């Protein structure tokens, strides 16, 4: 009705002003222009009133309330609207929104009167000049009653601005309007013939913008990994809707698809050639009066031709974050393509997103009369978002109020039919590329593409980028490797750290773009600049487009992923109106027309906050405990239910159950339990609901029991307590007690955790308004954790690996499994076996596999297991493949270091692996027998793969429904630290360990081997000894192992045995040795003690010359080499078992005690000490692999002992040297200073020492001065009396340092074992080489010799 009034008034307003003669007209054309502008202004006002009233009717109550509150700005009303109350008086107050509506309408009506005042003024009988009438009009307007602002005209403007507040009209519009008002109020001589009508015309244009509906639409975006294509799903059809997957393309003008995929063609109708719909399509054609359209195919070389047709298209409205109600575009124009080159499942066609007039976005915004905008957020995995007429973008953790998405604006050209932005410069880690200006400025701009997978650059641009990137990467320690097609520049990915979700830590690439006040930069991090070509190689994700490409810069989807891109296609309406205000006020008419002609210049909004870079955590988080019932292998949590008397009930965790069900008789009180009625919205929203009278019922399968049973229960509501927070209306069902089967005695029911509408976690996240996610950590023992709202972040955040959830609408948690690995070797499986994915279950105890998958897994596992000393044993139901560990494993805790089983799943930049180690792959069934903890599910099971709880134990598993991603923690192999007990020989002061060579079941050969920090061989033994092991094998000359020992290897021709030169600490030159392999037994440790004995194959060596070890004391048979060489024990164990390159040493001071050597990590028994270690850089001899540190000075009781010419690494760490040896002049100065400070009686020297003292009456340690070794970095290695004085005979002690004379050429001192005793030392050989040390453990009333080995 309002529109009819509007049109009627438009016709008559010309007559009003003509009769009034309010404007001095120079001619008929000028009169017409004046009348038109007047009518437009009036029409805009009435349309605004009509639109506002419609919005009152359409908006949800919450939005409506917030709109009125925003308009009225009354805190009192805000509080009354924000709280729900049962008080009738308070409820009556809440109806004051009607009063707000009345005032808003009054404001609009006031503005309407102001626009009609010229007519009434002209009816005054007296004659007035146009200038006088203008003054009368302004005076009358300003004297009208004011509600909130300075003038009625401004009131109308501001009210309309509030009305479209949700559309984000910028605040500077307020300032511009106020500026207009000040000019008018100050009487600047405005006349109706001057700029006044131009302002009114501008106001009309702004009012017309308000006529747009404030609505927005959301479609999901999916990434097809094999083709790197991004598509959305659109429902096409009127009665029978056909969901079609359509590729998103910013360059296609008219949507085209395979119409054979439509389920029904009844509502599809062709377009005639002479119809308006055909004529508006640029480049249309005809065939038998049917409209045709031909356009380029983004997926192929041939053009696409198709008949233009029309049908309805359906999609959802949104509040910015959630899908709301379905709407239909009743007349959606597209083409049925003839040739479908490049289209492959799951894509059925191409959705046009170009700036052209026939694109999907233009059709939607025009038909629904909404803001002409679109926004894309392409996902790297999971589900992305495609907004049409976007207003709010709610993507957690961003919301629409306190934490909005930061955006950067840049101009965009669309006149070519593409989206082009101007790239002014390119930076790599802040350094600009040196480019010919014509390369960037001479082109038409950088084209944005949702089809091209990687950014394509002109050859000169690519070369400059790659060269700068390579230099920056090499400076960060990232080495370049051979290229992997189709990429030209690739790098070693082994040692590149990751920055959470921003990808590998590589140089940042930035594009410089024009902004509002200067250049702005669009930054791309590792996730968008690199692509993983293999496990070891990553490549620069840019293409060289050649010297003469069609577009010099095409920004592809890999770079656009995880950024929100907003394309604003409005020019003179909506958002861009703020620019129009500025142009009209500050520019001349010529400049204004020039800007109007730049219709192709629009705006692109880029969110520079990459969503994947942000940890999605919430301020609110809830935690419930998880307990394992060992007899039934069931995992449950305890939940408090009941408002009157809290009833703790134990509920089984089930990822398949949608609605929680339990035996309500276990509740202490039923007084506040409420039945849900059939007619209630709660009952209607539960899928599969039923009725019993007026009571809502729910039927669902029970996850337990021998035979499938459907559990039926009445749907009820009561209060539940979660982490001391109250969930007031927890919906669940009271199951029939006779139907409850298979639950452990202490369990009352099942807690629903499915992806459905009513699982427990979704009720909590909805009620408390937190991020829709939860996480589980099922315990193998003790208490596990059930988080709602996510896993807590922080500095100690659990490292997680992300993978998308598959087909979340199925009601199950499914993973896409791409491959299987055992011990690093992939299984040969038919791809069809893996198509169904793997379902996660918290009820099935062991992973169930289809027979073919199981057989391949078991076969490969058995082959790997037997190679490390395991023997096949008879099966134990339900397990088929079992193994005997051998006698050494009896009465040992833990499990054997068995082959690792890995599942390959899709990740961010390619396949990622979920690794399962011993505790998750085998189960102990007898004292020495373990079985493969997987079950054969048969040839035709319902599901090919169900991952059970035994495999999920001790992993943190996070389900995030804001991104439809699952994350699993990166579990380290356990055990991960090798332990060698150390013994001190009293006679020789050597520190040695005992190693068992050979298989434990075949009389292993035990050898005592001295610890050598400079040794290059894992074990150096006498040849006549090592051959006694029946499992020892010589390495042949032409074998693959021998070739790995080059370049310092040779062949001993007499026996065709591979030889190698090996460094040692007790010989000046490397020894000529022969190589062989054998299985060696080690202990592995946990913080609570020894877990088990493991076997590891090692490469050993023995001297070719039998006399090479003649000087070795008879107490030992050789040495264990721990130097930094490729074949030392440290290198072989850490490389083979993927441990950290780290070792810790604690030398015992007494023969009766056992010290410890830990390889692969720090000592787990001295955590109280290891927290307070001092550190200094570790210097490694590149020739021998020995370890050195820099001693800057020596202090005795604070007095400095002078050193010689300091060289890097002037102090060697040597465990074979019994005492510290100093260069001659340093030794003499140290002895002199020590004797001067010592308050002890000096006695005759006892060789090999030169400073001895009487120990009679020496009970006070203060009489012995301490010696400090001041190392690089300023730390002091303090040596107390226990490590200074050696008891040589009764009542005589000597200073435990030796004179090295002048023959020490390469170092100034050798720090020996005596000074290191009862100190914890750690050598870190990872990113930075570091030597750490503690003070004497005797100061803490402990020692290295205390027996910590269980």
UniProtKB/TrEMBL annotation:
Keywords: Membrane, Transmembrane, Transmembrane helix. The keyword Transmembrane helix applies. The chain crosses the membrane at residues 104-121. Residues 230-578, 635-969, 991-1334 form the Peptidase A1 domain. Belongs to the peptidase A1 family. This is Peptidase A1 domain-containing protein. The lineage of its organism: Eukaryota, Viridiplantae, Streptophyta, Embryophyta, Tracheophyta.
């Amino acid at each position: 009705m309002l529109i009819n009034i509007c049109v009627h008034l438009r016709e008559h307003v010309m007559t009003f002003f003509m009769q009034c003669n309010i404007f001095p007209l120079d001619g008929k054309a000028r009169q017409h222009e004046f009348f038109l502008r007047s009518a437009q202004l009036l029409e805009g006002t009435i349309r605004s009133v009509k639109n506002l009233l419609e919005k009152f009717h359409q908006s949800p109550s919450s939005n409506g309330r917030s709109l009125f509150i925003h308009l009225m700005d009354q805190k009192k009303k805000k509080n009354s609207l924000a709280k729900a109350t049962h008080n009738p008086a308070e409820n009556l107050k809440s109806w004051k929104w009607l009063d707000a509506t009345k005032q808003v309408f009054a404001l609009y009506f006031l503005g309407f009167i102001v626009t009609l005042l010229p007519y009434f003024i002209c009816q005054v009988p007296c004659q007035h000049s146009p200038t006088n009438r203008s003054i009368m009009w302004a005076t009358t307007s300003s004297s009208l009653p004011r509600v909130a602002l300075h003038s009625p005209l401004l009131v109308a403007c501001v009210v309309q601005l509030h009305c479209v507040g949700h559309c984000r009209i910028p605040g500077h519009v307020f300032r511009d309007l106020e500026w207009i008002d000040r000019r008018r109020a100050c009487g600047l001589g405005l006349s109706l013939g001057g700029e006044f009508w131009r302002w009114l015309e501008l106001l009309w244009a702004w009012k017309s913008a308000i006529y747009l509906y404030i609505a927005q639409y959301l479609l999901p975006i999916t990434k097809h990994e094999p083709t790197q294509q991004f598509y959305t799903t659109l429902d096409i059809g009127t009665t029978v809707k056909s969901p079609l997957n359509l590729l998103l393309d910013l360059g296609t003008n008219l949507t085209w698809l395979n119409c054979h995929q439509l389920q029904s063609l009844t509502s599809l109708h062709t377009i005639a050639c002479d119809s308006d719909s055909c004529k508006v399509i640029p480049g249309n054609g005809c065939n038998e009066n049917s409209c045709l359209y031909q356009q380029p195919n983004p997926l192929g070389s041939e053009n696409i031709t198709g008949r233009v047709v029309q049908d309805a298209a359906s999609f959802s409205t949104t509040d910015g974050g959630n899908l709301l109600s379905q709407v239909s575009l009743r007349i959606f124009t597209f083409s049925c393509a003839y040739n479908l080159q490049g289209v492959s499942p799951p894509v059925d066609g191409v959705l046009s997103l170009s700036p052209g007039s026939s694109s999907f976005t233009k059709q939607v915004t025009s038909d629904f009369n909404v803001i002409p905008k679109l926004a894309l957020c392409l996902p790297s995995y999971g589900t992305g978002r495609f907004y049409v007429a976007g207003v709010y973008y709610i993507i957690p953790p961003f919301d629409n109020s306190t934490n909005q998405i930061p955006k950067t604006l840049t101009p965009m050209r669309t006149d070519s039919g593409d989206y082009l932005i101007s790239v002014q410069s390119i930076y790599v880690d802040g350094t600009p590329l040196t480019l010919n200006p014509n390369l960037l400025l001479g082109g038409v701009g950088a084209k944005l593409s949702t089809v091209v997978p990687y950014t394509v650059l002109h050859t000169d641009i690519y070369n400059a980028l790659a060269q700068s990137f390579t230099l920056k990467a090499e400076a960060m320690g990232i080495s370049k490797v051979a290229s992997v097609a189709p990429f030209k520049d690739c790098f070693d990915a082994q040692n590149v750290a990751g920055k959470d979700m921003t990808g590998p830590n590589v140089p940042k690439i930035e594009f410089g773009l024009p902004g509002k006040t200067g250049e702005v930069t669009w930054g791309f991090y590792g996730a968008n600049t690199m692509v993983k070509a293999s496990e070891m190689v990553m490549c620069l994700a840019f293409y060289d487009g050649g010297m003469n490409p069609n577009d010099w810069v095409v920004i592809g989807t890999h770079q656009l992923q995880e950024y929100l891109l907003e394309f604003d296609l409005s020019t003179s309406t909506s958002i861009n109106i703020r620019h129009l205000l500025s142009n009209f006020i500050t520019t001349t008419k010529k400049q204004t027309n020039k800007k109007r002609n730049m219709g192709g210049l629009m705006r692109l909004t880029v969110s520079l906050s990459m969503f994947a870079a942000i940890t999605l955590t919430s301020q609110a988080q809830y935690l419930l405990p998880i307990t394992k019932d060992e007899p039934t292998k069931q995992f449950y949590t305890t939940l408090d239910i009941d408002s009157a008397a809290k009833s703790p009930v134990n509920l089984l965790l089930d990822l398949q159950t949608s609605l929680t069900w339990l035996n309500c008789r276990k509740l202490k009180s039923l007084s506040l339990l409420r039945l849900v009625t059939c007619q209630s919205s709660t009952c209607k929203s539960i899928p599969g609901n039923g009725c019993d009278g007026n009571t809502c019922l729910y039927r669902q399968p029970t996850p337990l029991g021998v035979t499938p049973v459907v559990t039926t229960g009445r749907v009820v509501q009561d209060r539940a307590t979660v982490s001391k927070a109250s969930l007031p209306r927890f919906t669940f069902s009271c199951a029939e007690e006779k139907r409850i089967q298979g639950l452990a005695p202490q369990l009352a029911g099942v807690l629903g955790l499915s992806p459905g509408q009513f699982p427990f976690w979704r009720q909590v996240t909805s009620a408390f308004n937190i991020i829709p996610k939860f996480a589980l950590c099922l315990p193998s023992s003790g208490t596990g954790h059930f988080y709602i709202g996510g896993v807590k972040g922080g500095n100690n955040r659990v490292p997680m690996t992300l993978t998308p959830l598959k087909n979340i609408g199925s009601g199950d948690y499914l993973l896409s499994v791409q491959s299987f690995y055992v011990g690093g070797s992939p299984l040969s499986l038919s791809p069809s076996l893996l198509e169904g994915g793997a379902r996660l279950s918290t009820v099935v105890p062991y992973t169930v596999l289809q027979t073919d998958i199981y057989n391949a897994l078991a076969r490969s596992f058995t082959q790997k297991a037997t190679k490390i000393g395991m023997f096949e044993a008879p099966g134990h139901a339900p397990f088929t493949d079992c193994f005997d560990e051998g006698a050494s494993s009896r009465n040992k805790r833990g499990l054997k270091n068995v082959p690792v089983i890995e599942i390959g799943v899709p990740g961010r930049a390619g396949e990622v692996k979920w690794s399962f180690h011993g505790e998750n792959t085998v189960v102990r069934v007898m004292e020495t027998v373990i079985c493969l903890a997987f079950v054969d599910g048969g040839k035709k099971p319902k599901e090919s793969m169900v991952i059970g709880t035994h495999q999920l134990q001790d992993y943190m598993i996070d389900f995030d429904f804001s991104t439809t991603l699952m994350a699993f923690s990166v579990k380290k192999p356990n055990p991960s630290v090798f332990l060698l007990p150390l013994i001190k020989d009293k006679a020789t002061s050597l520190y040695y360990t005992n190693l068992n060579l050979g298989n434990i079941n075949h009389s292993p050969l035990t050898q005592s081997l001295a610890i050598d920090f400079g040794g290059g061989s894992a074990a150096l033994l006498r040849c006549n000894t090592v051959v006694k092991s029946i499992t020892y094998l010589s390495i042949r000359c032409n074998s693959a192992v021998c070739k790995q020992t080059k370049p310092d290897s040779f062949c001993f021709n007499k026996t065709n045995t591979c030889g190698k030169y090996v460094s040692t600490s007790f010989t000046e030159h490397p020894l000529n040795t022969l190589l062989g392999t054998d299985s060696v037994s080690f202990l592995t440790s946990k913080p609570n003690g020894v877990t088990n004995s493991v076997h590891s194959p090692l490469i050993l060596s023995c001297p070719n010359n039998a006399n090479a070890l003649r000087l070795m004391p008879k107490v030992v048979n050789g040495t264990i080499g721990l130097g930094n060489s490729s074949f030392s024990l440290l290198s072989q164990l850490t490389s083979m078992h993927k441990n950290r390159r780290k070792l810790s040493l604690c030398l015992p001071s007494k023969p009766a005690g056992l010290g410890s050597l830990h390889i692969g990590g720090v000592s787990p028994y001295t955590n109280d000490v290891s927290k307070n270690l001092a550190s200094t850089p570790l210097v490694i001899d590149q020739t021998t692999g020995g370890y050195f540190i820099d001693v800057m000075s020596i202090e005795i009781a604070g007095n400095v002992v002078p050193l010689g010419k300091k060289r890097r690494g002037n102090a060697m760490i040597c465990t074979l040297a019994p005492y510290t040896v100093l260069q001659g002049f340093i030794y003499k100065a140290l002895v002199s200073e020590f004797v001067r400070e010592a308050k002890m009686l000096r006695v005759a020297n006892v060789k090999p020492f030169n400073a001895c003292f009487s120990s009679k009456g020496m009970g006070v340690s203060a009489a012995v001065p301490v010696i400090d070794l001041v190392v690089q970095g300023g730390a002091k290695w303090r040596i107390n009396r226990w490590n200074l004085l050696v008891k040589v005979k009764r009542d005589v002690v000597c200073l435990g340092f030796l004179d090295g004379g002048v023959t020490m050429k390469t170092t100034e001192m050798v720090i020996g074992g005596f000074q290191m005793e009862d100190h914890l030392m750690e050598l870190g050989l990872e990113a930075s080489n570091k030597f750490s040390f503690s003070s004497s453990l005797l100061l803490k009333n402990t020692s290295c010799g205390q027996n910590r080995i269980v």
